[in-house]
Amino acid sequence: MDMVVDNLLFRNLVDQWCKPNCNPNDENELREELKSTALVSIVCNELNISTCGNNSTGKKRRCNEIDDEETAWLPYLQKLRNWGKSISSLPENIDIQDVKRFLIDSGFKDEEVKKYKSLCSWEHKQGVHSLRTQIVPCDTRLCAIQAAVNPSFATDQDETKLVYIILQRSSAKPVYTHCTCTVGLRKDCSHIGAVLFLLCDIIAEGHEELPVDPTCTDMKCKWTDPKGANCEPKMVEDLHIYKAKFGTKPSSKIVKPSASFANKVFKCDISQDKRLEKKLKLKNDILIANQRDSIPPIFHLIGMPSQNGQNAESQINCEPTLNTPCEGENLEIELQETVSFTCQESDQNSSVSESHRNIEVGDELISPPKYQPVSLSEIKERADKIKRKLFVTPEQKSHIEEETRDQADCEAWYRHRKPHITASKSKRAFIKPTTSPTKAMKEIMGMNSTITTSFMKDGQLSECGIIEKYSEIKGVKVSKCGLFISEQYPFLAASPDGLVGSHGLVEAKKIHPRENETLHQALLRLHICKPSKETPGELVVNENHRYYFQVQQQLLCTPRLWGDFVASDGKSFYIERPTFDEKFWEERIIKLEKFYNDTILLELAYPRVKNGLERIGKFGLTYDNLLRM
């Protein structure tokens, strides 16, 4: 034995091993039975001490074994052949937090990972392609992922990085990662993070398969992304703006004081003053509007101390007072006698004449007050008036449907659909609780400018031909129809493409596949349909797509029992017949009505967003608050 152990060290080692492993009575017998060499070997093995010279310790041997195991994964993965697009082999849930923990363990800084959307890993998602997966044959608890990443979209094959990842199927924890880039040897590779972020999006969106590999012409070129677009954000006062001249150095920085600059240089915080000024302006607006009424509950949302040191409750019954005579005169509240709106995509995407796209009509439901600003009691009265006029009798509903059968070619069709949530915008109204509803409201009410693409024009022109071909295939007669307003939920409306018999309707869509792509492949790529679980090889309409929401709202408003969804590329046809689903509307109708009351109804009663102002709901006002007044 090359290693020499003195008597004192030997006794200490023996005591450390014998006492926890032997009874006190058997300790002496064990010492006599075992020779010193054998006993030293046992003790050294238990304590991970090498007995063969100055080689590495047991801990280092284990590290070498781990390194050997990781090195063996790469050739094993390269030999696998059964790669596929099914996500059944992936973990059921891959969360963003799991990816962030992996990035931190790989060497990324905590501050960088907190702002993960500014990382290169997040930006490189668009460069991930050829994503494939399979269960590891030697261990079914693991799944292997193969992907190619080309964030620069270069044509050189050397710029494409090949990524391998092995995940635990139960916890989604990465077991092994490899990338062919230089940084991939150090494990803190942005390409690996890009693949993991993309997997999070795919699983969160509920796809059945991984995305189809795009062709080289489908990916946008690098020169479409300006070089200066990706830069660290800076304060305005830190920007150095100057006029460059050839042969001369940049001029010295000219300081332009701002709020943050004053706080940094002069140690004075004026942000509170600006915030107080904004609150005071809002308070004055409300005081002026309520000079003849008591101040409504919205006053408590301001949270401002009174000018006389009293609280807000003591001021409710007081006369409104302003700091200066000029305060409250320049109010940014404007209402118009006429309501202008820009019509957007119609329910059936039919042709629209330019004279009907930008048109000012006197809104029958809205009569703006003569004196501004209005009080909350007036807003409540106008909201109640709008809701009363939304209710239509069966005779009125039938008259509106007959009057609007020309749909996009009829001015009455635009006028009647404006105060409603139409079927084509039904999915847009279901927003997350943390999302501002302003954008959705502007889109539903047609406040945004309309962009007509060549595909949209082709879809409008092809709609009649698709319906005629559908009528021949099914052997049915399709009747022309107009705008249907729901009797039970009068804030909803729908315009089907046609009626079939006494129980059905039809909704036609023109699909534009890519080159060498079939209609079924295009429907899967656009997530309009998904593979059927009951019948392999067949497709069913995606219940989370806006087209499915559109058909269900049409069935609710007409009312009809079934609707044929027809998709065609001009040659092939896909026809499916969804039926009216009551469970689909059990929870959704409540959310839809709340969205209408708190956003669209208040905007109709008190137009602000259309005038460039913030919606009144920004101040915490809801329709339920108005009802409690």
From TrEMBL:
Residues 1-24 form the U-box domain. PROSITE patterns: U_BOX, ZF_SWIM. Coiled coil: none annotated. Gene3D superfamilies: 3.90.320.10. Keywords: Metal-binding, Zinc, Zinc-finger. Pfam families: YqaJ. GO terms for biological process: DNA repair; protein ubiquitination. One of its GO terms (molecular function) is ubiquitin-protein transferase activity. Residues 164-200 form the SWIM-type domain. Transmembrane segments: none annotated. This is SWIM-type domain-containing protein. It comes from Acropora cervicornis.
